[in-house]
Design goal:
Number of helices: 5
Keywords: Hydrolase
Mean pLDDT: 92
Distance between the termini: 26 Å
EC number: 3.1.31.1
Order of helices and strands: EEEEEHEEEHEHHH
Radius of gyration: 16 Å
GO molecular function: 3' overhang single-stranded DNA endodeoxyribonuclease activity
Protein name: Putative SNase-like nuclease
Strand content: 15-25%
CATH architecture: Beta Barrel
Helix content: 25-40%
CATH topology: OB fold (Dihydrolipoamide Acetyltransferase, E2P)
Shape: globular
Number of strands: 9
Organism: Planktothrix tepida PCC 9214
């Protein structure tokens, strides 16, 4: 990972080089392989090497692999519009992803291969959000609600554990 300076709300046109999981990919940015993490969604975890697997792990990893493959199918080899927002504690660039006019976070939610991951500040600090942020946050909840009601993807599996809750166990 190279050293770079973020410009919030900067629009980039990128072609992903590698899909890490359902909410993170690597692309060339400022001359370095850089991780881009989808903002406000959370995909199921994928298998980590060396981990002894339980039934809960196998279930999470199954959905994680499906999510990763779905994202790979959607974006591999294609140019995306990526809107930068900030970096996270893992030095990934939190961003919104578009293929043409279609938001990829919403696509993953609608098919049930990601869950909403909206921080409390969206409610409590909404004065700092743009109108587009508010629209996206609302649509994220709408798309997740559709997937839940339609029992799509992870919402069809009574054994599935929300990724943030799963990570607390490992």
């Amino acid at each position: 990972m190279g050293v770079f300076y973020l410009i919030k709300m900067q629009k980039l046109i990128l072609t992903p080089n590698f899909i890490i999981d359902g909410d993170t990919f690597i692309a060339e940015y400022n001359g370095a392989a850089t991780k881009f993490r989808a903002r406000w969604i959370d995909a199921p975890e994928i298998q980590k090497l060396g981990k002894i697997s339980t039934e809960t792990d196998l279930n999470q990893w199954k959905w994680g692999e499906l999510s990763r493959r779905y994202l790979d199918h959607l974006i591999q080899g294609k140019q995306l519009t990526v809107i930068i927002h900030e970096t996270d504690p893992y030095n990934r660039i939190l961003s919104d992803w578009y293929l043409g006019r279609s938001n990829l976070q919403l696509q993953l939610l609608r098919v049930g291969l990601a869950v909403a991951f909206l921080e409390p500040r969206i409610v409590y600090e909404s004065r700092n959000l743009t109108k587009l942020d508010i629209i996206l946050a609302t649509r994220i909840l709408q798309h997740q609600y559709y997937a839940i009601q339609s029992q799509k993807g992870v919402w069809s599996d009574a054994q599935f554990m929300i990724p943030s809750e799963y990570r607390k166990m490992i």
